[in-house]
Amino acid sequence: MSYIIVGLGNPGEAYEGTRHNAGRMILDNLRQSIDAAFEFDKKKNAQIAVGKIGAEKVTLVAPDTFMNNSGKAVAMLVKSAKAAEKLIVIYDDFNLPLGRIRISYDRGDGGHNGLASIIKSLRTTAFARIRLGTAPENVKGQAKVPHGEEKIEKFILGPFRADELKTLKAASKKAVGAVEMIVTEGREKAMSLYNAG
To answer: Which alpha helices (DSSP H) does the chain contain, by range?
Structure first.
């Protein structure tokens, strides 16, 4: 049973480079690092790439269902609670400063609609996730979180600024390394290393 690695975001040019597509952007970096190619799977309504990390077979999935229905595509590949143990979901988090990543397991959706859709479709929270911070940082090193539905939507659907892309590139490398460690050395080791900083 191969690892299923999902990068959340929205399909289409209009959403490329937006904060809400950070998970999809990291997935594409991972795809390049393992030299795999995406192909559209009409039945699953997702971009799928198959490759290897170490000796482990991995399936990379970028749902084309739009964020709020991500679970529909994921449920076609993860068909049991046992299979969910080898699921890794990568997504954006505006409660974390830009450039930070956090690995967690068996938690709630944290208000993220894409993650909520996956939990609802799989009927389990017992899978790994990697959150990438997208918020500006205040002087105390905490995230400057937007407030109010309108402001949040404008923020997450807005593009990364040119100066943010450099930080994002470094964070993306970290996130790819975290995925590789989860697959080759286990979730616990990756959490202890990547959640420390």
So the answer is: 22-33, 70-75, 81-84, 113-122, 149-156, 162-185, 187-194
Tokens 């000796």 -> residue: 55
User: 138-178: per-residue pLDDT in tens?
Assistant: 888 888 888 888 998 899 989 999 889 899 999 999 999 99
SS3 131: strand
Instruction: Render the burial of 59-76: b for 16+ CB within 10 Å, e for the rest.
Output: bbbbbbbbbebbbbbbbb
**Cα separation of 180 and 128, whole Å?**
13
Active site residue 147: no
DSSP 139: T
Selected catalytic residue, list 20, 31, 100, 131: 20
* Domains and their CATH numbers in the chain: 3-194 (3.40.50.1470)
At 69-105, the pLDDT tens digits run 999 999 999 999 999 999 999 999 999 999 899 999 9
Q: What is the pTM of this model?
A: 0.95
Q: Is the dihedral of CA 73, 95, 11, 53 positive or negative?
A: negative
